[in-house]
UniProtKB/TrEMBL annotation:
GO molecular function: DNA binding
UniProt-annotated location(s): Cytoplasm
Cellular component per GO, a single term: cytosol
Family indicated by similarity: Belongs to the TACO1 family. YeeN subfamily.
Top-level taxon of the source organism: Bacteria
Keywords: Cytoplasm, DNA-binding, Transcription, Transcription regulation
Alphabetical list of InterPro entries matching this protein: Integrase-like_N, TACO1_YebC-like_2nd/3rd_dom, TACO1_YebC_N, Transcrip_reg_TACO1-like, Transcrip_reg_TACO1-like_dom3, Transcrip_reg_TACO1_YeeN, YebC-like
Protein name, UniProt field: Probable transcriptional regulatory protein WQ57_11250
SUPFAM superfamilies: YebC-like
Residues covered by the TACO1/YebC-like N-terminal domain: 3-74
Amino acid sequence: MGRKWNNIKEKKASKDANTSRIYAKFGREIYVVAKQGEPDPDLNQALKFVLEKAKTYNVPKHIIDRAIEKAKGGSDETYDELRYEGFGPNGSMLIVDALTNNVNRTASDVRAAFGKNGGNMGVSGSVAYMFDATAVIGMEGKSADEVLEILMEADVDARDILEEDDSVIVYADPDQFHAVQEAFKNAGITEFTVAELTMLAQNEVTLPEDGQAKFEKLIDALEDLEDVRQVYHNVDLGE
């Protein structure tokens, strides 16, 4: 896969550690999926997925409970899911997913973040074709061979299984996300270091030192936007 998922997640966790921004974004996403379906994860697969992801980011229980209760309370607050595509320094590519209650504000903010940091927005489809939607699930305490055996016994397919630091990371098709998790849970594995759907670049690029510094500023500017829920890119940021 050409990337160390643990390093990526650790960098993001470190960046967000001193703020409540990541929790607020999860609260918004949990509210939206709970409102769109049943506010019960056993009856709402989308909610179940978001809660599993929130767990790996240590989102406090009161944030989760408040968002679900808000959805149960019949709030009329509505959000649109948006996707922007663009280019950063040295031809780097980015996909920006947003969840917003003000489309014009979000579009303006995202465009400004690109423009002020050496990038520019592209049209829909200009970048996404270079990425693959992927389920990523990681755990500690197992070897790659043990994980493969668990999946084979459950007759579940994976694209790749890699050992990264002290974890094993499974990459699978998005529609296999819940099947992979259930296979592990049936094998007694209930704690995951990562459990989410993402967009992985088919090919990563390495930027020169000055280009990487500019690129990281662009990433920070986009991730700092209130409405942005996730930023995907094709740059190898190293370790």
